Amino acid sequence: MPPQLLPASAAAFAPRASSVNVVLGSKIEPWLTQTLKRINRVKRPLNSVPQHQRCLTETLSSPNAIWTLASLMLPKAPESELRKDQNPLIEAIFNFQFIHLEAYIVHVDMVLRNEVAYKLTPDTIESLIEYHKDIHCVNAKANTYDWSEKEHQCKKLHEEFIQAINKFVFTTHVSALEGLEEDGVGELLSGKSEDVKNAVMGLVKPLLPPPPRIVDVVRQPPLLPSSPANASMWSQPPTPSSLSAPVDSWRVLPSSPSVTSSSADSASSIWANMGMSEVQMPSPTPSYSQPYSTAGLFYSSPVVTSPIPHLPLPSMLAPHCGVNMGYNHFGWDRYQEYTTTM
């Protein structure tokens, strides 16, 4: 479609021009000739394109050439001030008003786009601005929650409406000129008024508050009463680096207390080579007492006479289990000596 070319009088805040821009084609449609003959009180010759153009331009440039595009029924006051009555007719009479959308023609194009452009009159623009400020903005602020920039956003919304309503230009097909009356006044036909209502009310934007902020609540895991404040409940105690390998039991204590070392030097060398970190003795040292039974070489079950001390874990004793393990004064590694003597 060809681009829309509008005169300077169609711009925002531009005053009405003294002459309407009319562009006709090389051939005049019969309906336009009949319309011009109908509205002219004085008979004028309409035998050529320039005569049609001159007659149409003078008619539409008249100060009385005002078109009624549509009529809006809007409330007279904010919602909190409207009158309540059981009769809906009384409510409509006292609470609503009609604003007639009046406009004048700024451009007629019958060559490129075959359209007519209308611009709202200053009185209509002022009425719509007053409605937007005194009623629409008040209702919008009452129906939305408060936030820090609410008043600023409402003023910005009103300023945007002022700019939009002054820029508003409605275009229709050139066949709308069939509704032309004397002195250039007219009214839209063929249901075009509904399109004007929707276009104008589309400029009345709602006041949109900002979306609520989503706050992520980070919950710390519960801490045990004995754990410090900055410690994690799943933290493991550090493993001492000095424990490089498990210590053999025969290096800690001899297998039988009754057996003495063959050489004092060898015993002293063993204890001298061991570091303090290699010695692991439970605290307190567990003491075991087994009563001796005369029935053969069998031992009775242990008698517990005191609370059970802290014993080392089985994983600590697992590497030491074998024939070298001694039990009280009887060593299983010397089993052959005991059997021969018996």
Task: Explain how this protein is built.
This protein has 342 residues and is of the alpha/beta class. It has a domain at 8-201. Helix content is 30%, strand content 13%. It is built from 10 helices and 8 strands. It has helices at 30-39, 49-60, 88-95, 122-142, 150-167, 192-201, 249-252, 264-273, 314-317, 335-341; strands at residues 21-23, 67-75, 96-109, 115-120, 169-173, 186-187, 326-327, 330-331. The strands form 2 sheets. Strands 1, 2, 3, 4, 5 and 6 form a 6-stranded mixed sheet that branches. Helix 4 packs antiparallel against helix 5 (150-167). It is elongated. Mean pLDDT is 77; it is low at 258-264.
Break the fold down into its secondary structure elements and pairings.
Blueprint: E1 21-23, H1 30-39, H2 49-60, E2 67-75, H3 88-95, E3 96-109, E4 115-120, H4 122-142, H5 150-167, E5 169-173, E6 186-187, H6 192-201, H7 249-252, H8 264-273, H9 314-317, E7 326-327, E8 330-331, H10 335-341
Helix pairs in contact: 4-5
Biased composition (Polar residues): 229-244
Region (Disordered): 227-246
